[in-house]
Design goal:
Helix content is 0%, strand content 54%.
Length: 489
Amino acid sequence: MGASRLLVPAATSRHHAQSWRKFAVCAVATTALLLMAPAAGATPAALPLVWGARIDGPAHAADAAYFDAASPDGSTVYANGQVTTPSDGLDMVTAAYDAVTGHRKWLATYDGAAHMDDAGQGITVSPDGATVLVIGATYDPSVDYDYLTIAYDAATGAQKWIQRYDGPGHGYDVPISVRTSPSGSRVFLTGSSVGTAQNDDFATIAYDVATGNQAWLARYDAPAHGEDDPGALTVGSNGEVYSMGGSDGVGTGTDVATVAYNPVNGHRLWVARYDGPAHGNDGNCIFTCIETSAAGDRVFVLANEIGVGTSQDIVTLAYDAATGNQLWASPYDGPVSGSDFPGDLAVLPGSGDVVITGAVQTNTHFTDIITIRYAASDGALQWATDFDGPSHGEDYGNTIVANPSGSEVVLAGVSNGDGMNDAAGRDAITQVYDAATGALTGSARFDPAHGQDEGLFLVLSPDGTKAYTAADATPTTNQDFVVLAYRVA
């Protein structure tokens, strides 16, 4: 099952980003760490698999479920991804499953007019549970990739409306993150879009959920007029829209940019830029690496930075949601000061503290999963837990979610399990950690055919008792679109 170890701060906290991009077609203190062995008898419980569902596309080739979401009433799980077609193109797929049995309720496939690549990039459900909204990237040789947004009837899968966005540069335009407003009247998405100067800009769009009409479009081209690539978007409880990503600075390499927008008209409220200590290529973390506090007064961002003598580190940032003033920055440098990568962050209900996951390089030149809790008030490190899988190979956390009480966090990721430390040895893992102590209390490993299996995204049921992991997995000989339901409480 692999070993976890708790890394306990002997002093206070530290602070740490780098620019990387995935397309699915997807006040500094110092921390000293004391390595502690797992407590006796602390073997994590095996998480029961309630059901598993898969889609094997028409080409029986590389298919994947990249994202999932749960209905507000907990009755249905929705997943978004892609399947490979016989012509070697990709079609975007959205599926709905009964949350109790895993029975598929409906399936919607999108094949663009060019019959080429159409890849799922995200999914969300309106607060009233009536509409499923998905984003994707759709390819046409005449305009390259465009944003794709589709609204489906949540009960039947019938398409309500569809929108495409082709940026002013008519180049590579790819959405990366999607959320709805608290009222459910609007859906917001952000991504990279080529501008008139043929460099990427942040492009954030608001659509009316009922009609699909565009409410506003906001582009962010930083002062350097270089490459600006957002990684994630969130919406606060007050309705404000926030996006983050890597953005070229003037003489500072790539910085971490966070942009706040008025949800009514898209007017920019503030921009905050973070340049790491080495003034190198700091930047991105993708899909879900920005969240707000429950009160909506703080914005938390997870990213990479280049440290001084520490290579690539993970940094967690906190901003005042009203002004964009930086409140704290907490970098984390792994055990060998190598290449460390951010995965995701979650805000704990109740305390408001931030828990992040990712991967840190080890002395084997592979990576371990790192999970860390920071105090919301000042970024002080509360605990850090390292997970090294049974092969001592590539292990990394992709998504982390807090349960409704804030007592546990659940993550989905990847862990080598066959001793070979290659792609074929990857297993999809789902893990539960005690939010108070950082102890690994539950774990599941999915490896049906000893092939390449990856846990990519995860959501919890509204009551926090089940975790639904979206994965690409190899139940037989090829990767399939897979959703796994585990009991976690």
